[in-house]
Amino acid sequence: MKNVSPNLCCLFSMYLGIIVVAVVFVQSQDLGGGVMRKGQAYTRVSDHILKCKFSTNTINCTKCNLNNMPVFHEILYNITFFDLHYNTIQFLGNNSFNETPNVQKINLIYNSLQGIEQDAFVGLSDLQELYLGYNQELQHIRDLWFHTLNSLRVISFVGGNVDTIYADAFKGCWQLKEVHLEGNNIVSIPDSLFRNFSYLQQVYIQRNKIQRLPKNMFQNSNSVEVLWFHDNQIQTILTTSELQTLSNLTKLSVGVNPYNCDCEILWFARWINNPGNVTFLWVENATCNESNTKIKNVASKLKHCDLKVVIVTTCFLLFLVVTVLGFLYAFRWNIRYWNQLRLRRKQYERIKNEVVDRTNLKYDAFISYESNDLDWVLKVLHPTLESNPYNFRLCLDYRDFVVGDNVVNNITNAIKHSRKVVVVVTDNYARSEWCHFELEMAKLRMLENQEDVMIVIQLSDVSPESMSVLLKKEMVSKRCIKWPSCEEGKKVFWVKLGMALQSPNIPCNRGSRYTL
Q1: How far is residue 91's CA from residue 115's CA, in Å, rounded to a whole number?
Q2: Do 428 and 354 share a structural domain?
Q3: Computed over its alpha carbons, how large is the radius of gyration of the chain?
Q4: Which distant-in-sequence residues (6+ apart) come within 8 Å of 490 by Cβ?
Q5: Closest Cα to residue 422, out of 445, 460, 395, 401?
């Protein structure tokens, strides 16, 4: 040391001082001190971050004893792979990856994740692969955790402890191709979980506790090629799952489920035997729960199911026919009436614009009666009214209806060209559909011409239960001319009827009663 110059000693001392200052500075920084963040809270975690290995586009923090997400205090644009597996990270707060905005793959398997905030992955528009498996504390996959990951292709929760997955868990991940949920405790798959993913190709849900496949499981997700659901608690596979409609399906893993070999699974057994382009995996382990018979062999034992289908279908059709026939029978008069109304409207559409001379009509009255009362009309009413002293011109169906023309046309024209309509009411008339039709036609004539043309003769007593609503209304609104049993009464009857036929048609708005 005696030969060392003072200048050299000074230079050496200065160099040692710089090194000490540099060490102190590094230890005072977050990178050297390992400051970690959980939400907005920062926790010093010793120098674990110093163990992370950096390369051109990768951060490898495997087995660095990280309890929280590391913070680097700079934006690392070049990082595309962030490997964090085998740590004890418990929580992903909002903006957990804002320092690696261009990352394409994140590996968080074998951590201690318990919760993920809704915006934990916000800003990762390039993320394509996300691995969250083997996190035993994570029991729920909630809605909208991944709603901003528009480029995500692969998501994995392999070998965890998930028991509940929400219906919108993957909403927003419209480019999703692979979903790995195998090896969890999932009991049910929401019906809409895998719907509307046009790029989805592979779904792995084996080794769970799933009890049924959802109805229309892959609606609008027609690119599915691989589906593994072996080793679950599925007892039957219904046609409503629509698996058979997936035109791109090539592999289907079905074994180790407690299948009930009943008629509901017959279609599936036949599909296994005639798979088309589908390769069934673990099919030798697909057995009946009660007999250990292989599913592919049960088709021959379930032949009775076809007969059951025939019987059920036949019974249903028979029930349907009986119901329809019963309905038609119960409402037969209404149906006929509605049909006549339809024909009536059609007829009136044809003749409503015809000009009819009301002062020179062809008939004084159209006689509406029921065929069982023809004898009284033929022998009493007709000869009396068309002879002296009355000399009325009557329209009678048996004489004046046009032969060969349909009944509807004849009735319509008769009422149209008659000044009055005489209704001969009996119990038979009240029950007759055709008589009710004639009454309706007369009522329509009254409404169209705003005049009361109807005269009601009550030939016999009528049960109120037999009368339609319209007939009751007409009998209440008019003074019916009753046919008496005594000769003196009959003289009065003809006088009243003659006066009624000769009376002018009273406008409807002035009332429809006439005084006799």
Answers
A1: 5
A2: yes
A3: 47
A4: 483, 484
A5: 395
Place of tokens 């007939």: 471
C-alpha 364, offset from chain centre? 62
Q: Is there a single domain that holds both residue 342 and residue 265? A: no
- Report phi then psi at 4, rounded to 5: -80, 130
In a domain, 237, yes or no: yes
Residue 29 has pLDDT above 60, yes or no: no
Please choose, from the candidates 83, 80, 76, 88, the residue with its C-alpha nearest in 3D space to the C-alpha of residue 36: 88
From residue 484, give the alpha-carbon distance in Å to each of 243, 367, 388, 488. 81, 19, 21, 9
Collapsing DSSP to helix, strand or coil, 37 comes out as: strand
pLDDT in tens, 299-344: 878 877 866 666 777 788 888 999 898 888 877 656 765 665 666 5
Q: Distance (Å, rounded) from C-alpha 446 to C-alpha 470?
A: 13
Residues ≥6 apart with Cβ < 8 Å to 358: 419, 449
Q: SS3 letters for 38-101?
A: ECCEEEECCCHHHHCEECCCEEECCCCCCCCEECCCCCCCCCCEEECCCCCCCEECCCCCCCCC
Strand stretches in 147-224, DSSP E:
154-156, 164-165, 178-180, 202-204
How far is it, in rounded angstroms, from Cα 507 to Cα 514? Answer: 11
CA dihedral for 182, 185, 190, 191, sign (positive or negative):
positive
Task: Measure the CA–CA gap between 334 and 437, rounded to whole angstroms.
Answer: 11
Instruction: Please indicate, yes or no, whether residues 191 and 260 belong to a single structural domain of this protein.
Output: yes
d(CA 252, CA 256): 13
**Burial status of residue 358 (CB atoms within 10 A of its CB: 0-12, 13-18, 19 or more):** exposed
Among 292, 307, 322, the domain-final residue is: 307
**Residues spanned by the domain of 474:** 333-510
How far apart (Å, rounded) are the C-alpha atoms in residues 263 and 273? Answer: 16
Distances (CA, A) of 12 to 5, 15, 21: 11, 5, 15
Q: Which long-range contacts (CB under 8 A, 24 or more apart) does 453-456 make?
A: 453/418, 453/419, 453/420, 453/421, 453/505, 454/420, 454/421, 454/423, 454/478, 454/512, 455/365, 455/420, 455/421, 455/422, 455/423, 455/481, 455/497, 455/500, 455/501, 456/423, 456/425, 456/480, 456/481
Domains of the chain: total = 2
- Quick check: 125 and 174 in contact, CB under 8 A? no
The CATH number linked to 497 is 3.40.50.10140
Q: Write the pLDDT tens digit of every residue in 412-431.
A: 888 888 888 898 998 888 88
* 9 domain residue, yes or no: no
- Of the two residues 338 and 168, the one the predictor is more confident about is 168
